[in-house]
Amino acid sequence: MTAMEFNYKLTGLEDKLKRFALSLTSNHEDAVDLVQETFLKALTHREQFAEDTNLKAWTFTILKNTFINNYRKAIKRNTTFDNTKDLYFLNGSNENAGAKTDSAIHVKEIKKGMESLPDDFKIPLQMYISGFKYKEIAENLDVNIGTVKSRIFFSRKKLMKVLDADQD
């Protein structure tokens, strides 16, 4: 496929890409930016496109991955370090600023339940909730990724039991 054919087929996907981007971002300007970034990446890496494959699927995958990467970067920008001994990762935004009384009580119960967990289980769960990937948690805690996954799984189970016991 020549560069002209590639460019023509790529620009023919613009409307579909915009609709998909809008469904991901829920904001027209962000959707347009995402499509432009997708076009840039597709044109830059045109030689990686295999000619006998689906250009539409390839381009949509670029768009989706770009959206996910941008989202993760935004989350990390809002994450700060707490300079305690264990270096917990905390999200910098104040998510409970406008919480209603009922939801504030539920948040307090969840936090209380999480505090009752042993540190080996509490820390990976807090990092996971803050948006860290399993691999990042494993690297930061210097444990295997399987250990991280099982600790998060068992932390959720223990937290559910604690919260169920509080409801009784």
Brief overview, please?
This protein is mainly alpha-helical and 168 residues long.
What tags apply to this protein structure?
168 residues; mainly alpha; Rna Polymerase Sigma Factor, Chain: A; Arc Repressor Mutant, subunit A; 2 domains; two-stranded antiparallel sheet; 8 helices
Describe this structure in words.
- Helix 3 packs across helix 4 (55-77).
- Strand 1 and strand 2 (89-91) form a beta hairpin.
- The mean pLDDT is 82.
- This protein is mainly α and 168 residues long.
- The longest helix is centred in the middle third of the chain and has 23 residues, at 55-77.
- The chain has a two-stranded antiparallel ribbon with strand order 1-2.
- It folds into two domains: 3-77, RNA polymerase sigma factor, region 2, helix turn helix motif (Rna Polymerase Sigma Factor, Chain: A, Orthogonal Bundle); 80-167, Winged helix-like DNA-binding domain superfamily/Winged helix DNA-binding domain (Arc Repressor Mutant, subunit A), CATH 1.10.10.
- The protein has helices spanning 3-11, 14-25, 28-44, 55-77, 101-115, 119-129, 134-141, 145-167; strands spanning 79-81, 89-91.
Ends distance: 67 Å
Class of secondary structure makeup = mainly alpha
Number of helices: 8
Low-confidence stretches: none
Helix content: over 70%
CATH class of the largest domain: Mainly Alpha
The mean pLDDT is 82
Our count of domains comes out at: 2
CATH homologous superfamily identity of the largest domain: Winged helix-like DNA-binding domain superfamily/Winged helix DNA-binding domain
Shape: elongated
The CATH topology of the largest domain corresponds to Arc Repressor Mutant, subunit A
- Main sheet summary: 2 strands, antiparallel
Using the CA coordinates, give the radius of gyration: 22 Å
Number of strands: 2
Secondary-structure element pattern, one letter each:
HHHHEEHHHH
CATH architecture of the largest domain: Orthogonal Bundle
Q: Looking across the biggest beta sheet, what order are the strands in?
A: 1-2
